[in-house]
Design a protein that fits this description.
The complex is a heterodimer of chains A (334) and B (436). By secondary structure, chain A is α/β, with parallel strands linked by helices. Chain A is built from twelve helices and twelve strands. In chain A, helix 2 links the parallel strand 1 and strand 2. Classes of the chains: A alpha/beta (334), B alpha/beta (436). At the A-B interface, helix 3, helix 4 and helix 5 of A face helix 6 and helix 7 of B.
Chain lengths: 334, 436
Amino acid sequence: MNMIEAINSAMDVMLGRDDKMVVMGEDVGFFGGVFRATAGLQKKHGKTRVFDTPINECGIIGVAVGMGAYGLRPVPEIQFADYIYPGLDQLVSEAARLRYRSAGDFICPMTVRTPFGGGIFGGQTHSQSPESIMTHICGVKTVIPSNPYDAKGLLIAAIEDNDPVVFLEPKRIYNGPFSGYYDRPVEPWSKHEASAVPEDYYRIELGKAATVRAGEALTILAYGTMVHVTKTIVEEMGVDAEIIDLRTLLPLDIEAIETSVKKTGRCLIIHEATRTSGFGAELAALVQERCFYHLEAPVERVTGFDTPYPHSLEWAYFPGPVRIATALTNILKD
Amino acid sequence: MTETLPKANLGRPASNLPPLSLHIPEPRYRPGDTPDFGDIAIPAVDATPRPGEATKPDAMRDLCYGLVRVLDFDGQAKGPWDPKLTPDRLRAMLRYMMLVRAFDDRMFRAQRQGKTSFYMKSTGEEATSVASTMAIDRSDMCFPSYRQQGILIVRDYPLIQMMNQIYSNRGDHLLGRQLPIMYSAPEHGFFSISGNLATQYPQAVGWAMASASKGDSRIATVWCGEGSSAEGDFHSALTFATVYNAPVIFNVVNNQWAISSFSGFAGGERTTFAARAVGYGIAGLRVDGNDPLAVYAATQWAADRARTNNGPTLIEHFTYRAEGHSTSDDPSAYRAADEATAWPFGDPIARLAQHLETLGEWDGERQEALRKELDDLVKTTQKQSEKLGILGHGMHQPFETMFQDVFEEMPWHLKEQSKQMLAEQEAKFGPNWKPE
C-alpha cells in the first residue's frame, strides 16, 4: 500500500470496528477526497458515516466537537493544513480544553486529518507546516507519520484515542518516499518495506519514536517527509548518523531522544516548517536541558525559511540536500 | 519625465461623484437622554398566526419580522400561540424565574462582597432560559451561553453546586478551573460553557446531527446573544444545520446590548435577528422574550418541528438586559439611566404573576411569600456553600489537579511540571499543606 491507501485502510478498518466513528470533510464522501484518502468509504459504510461538508472549517471542527460530546468518534478531514486556521478557535479553545474545563464531564475524541507540507507546487496556501502551532496548544496531540505502515498504525491509535489528535499527513510522500532531489523520479512505496501494510487492525502507540537508522556520529531528529530526505543525504555522505523519526510530536518520545543524543554527543534537527518558534526550537531546548554535558557540538537546526511558501522558488525554500549537507559537515567538523 | 501614479489611484479616476460616507451605528439613547420606545411595533397578541410545525420556512417569513405574543399587557393569554398551560405549570414557571432572580441577586452581592471574581445576572431575561427549557424534553441537550442559569434551575440542578462553582471552592465540581457561572452538568443536559462566544453554536449542531444519525429522539438547543450572532461560528452553525436538517433550536437572546455595544453593531439596525434564518432556509420566529408563554410556545413549536424531522428553527427572543453585562460592567456609562423601565414589554416575572392573578390562581400575598421562601432558600444554601470556601480565601483544590484532565493520561512533560509545582508548593507551604 502507499500512504494514501494505508490511511484509507485505517479508516476502513475503524469504521468497521466502531459504529461511533464518522468521517467528514470537504469532498470526502462520494468523490473520496481530493487526495483519494477516503475513496470508497462512503459506498462501503454509508452516507451517515462518511459524508461531505460545507466549505467551512470552523463548522467542520465545531460540529465534530459536538459529535464527540454526544459520544461519536469523528474523524474530520481538513483538505489542506493551511485551511485549519479558520477552524483553529474550535480546536484551541474548545476541542483541546473540553476535558479540562469540564473536569472530564465531556471529552472530544476527534482526529483531525490533514495533508501538510510542501514540495508539490502548492504555493503559499497549500504547503504550510503548522505542527508547532498544534504542539503549542495544551490538550491536543500531534502525530506525523513518515511511511505507510506507520501511517495506518498511528491513525488507528489516533482514532482510538480519547483526546483530540491532529494527524498531519506529509503529502509529498503520499505516493513514495522523497529523496530531497526534486529532479529525480520518486520511487513508489511498493519498492519499500514499509509498504507491506496488513489489511487488518494493528496500532502503533502514540508517543513512541522510531529509529530509522542506528549510528554513532550524531543524532538527527526528523519527522514526515524530512525523514527520507535526511536518510538520502546521510547515505550519500556516508555519515554514521542515528536518524530518529519522532512520529508523534506531542506527546514526544523524550527518552528516545535523550538516549540517542547522550550516545552520539551531537544533535541535528531537521524540519520543513519555518525556523522561528518552529518545533526545532523546542527540540533544541530539550536536548540542551537534558544532554548539555554530553554534547560535543552546538545543537543545529535545518529548517525552511521564515517566509511564506514561495510558489516558483519552492525548491530554494525547501531544506534540501545542500542545506542538510552543509549542516552535517558543520556539526561533525570537530 | 515619466509620470508615476501611486498604485491606489490606478482604479477609477476621481470624478464629480458625491463622496461616499461610512455609517457608524449609534444607539438611540445615551446617558442623560430620556428613552422613548414608543415607536417599537407591537403587534396585537392574537395577530400572529401559528403555522403548522411542518410549514416550509419560506411560507412563514413574516414570523421573522413580527412578534409572537401570548400575554397582553393586562395579563390575559390570547391568540393561536397560547400554550394553555395548567395553573400548576404556570406557578412552577414563575417559581423557577423567581428563583433565578433570587439567586442572581445574592450572587451579585457575593461578588460585591469580594467572595468571588465575577458574576452575570439575567435580570429581565429569565423567561428566555426558564420558559424555553420547560418547553423541551428533560433529555434534550442544552448548549448555553453565559446567561442561561435558568436551564440548570429548571432542571433542578443543586443550587449549592452552582454556588460552589461560582466560589471555586473545594466543592466545585470543576476543580476551580472555570470562571464563575461557566457551569457544566452533563447529567442535567447542560453543556460545558465556553468563554469564547458562539463556539457552542456549531457544537450544538454537531450534537443534533449525531443524535439524528443514531436514530435518537433527542434534540439540541443552543443560546447566544444578539451580539455574538455576528461571530463566524454562528453562521457556520446555521449552514451546517440547514444542510443536514439538524434537529436543533437556535436561540438568539436579543437583549439589546453586548457589553456597551448596542444591537446595531451586530447588524440589528437593518433587519431582525430572526430574519437571519431566511437566508439559510431555516424556520425563524421572533418572540416577545419578556412574555414567558410566548417563549414557551415558540420553543415547543420548534421542538416539535425538530423532533419530527422538519429541521432547525431560529428563535429571536426580543428582550432587554435590565442589568449590566457582568459585575465588571457599568451600564450607566453608556446607556440612558431608565432604559430598562422604559422598555415597553415589562418584566417577565411581573407579567406571569399578573397572568396567574387574572386566572384567580395567584395573589400578592402568595407572591411575597414565595419571594421570601426563595430568598431564604438561596441564603441558606449560600451559607452551606461558603463553608466549603470562597474564591481568594486560600486555595481549595489539591495542586496536582491542575495537571489532570489536560489529556486522559498524563504525558511525561506534564508529570515533570506537576512534580516541579509540588516541589514549589512544599517549599512555600511545607510538606503538610492541604487544600483549605
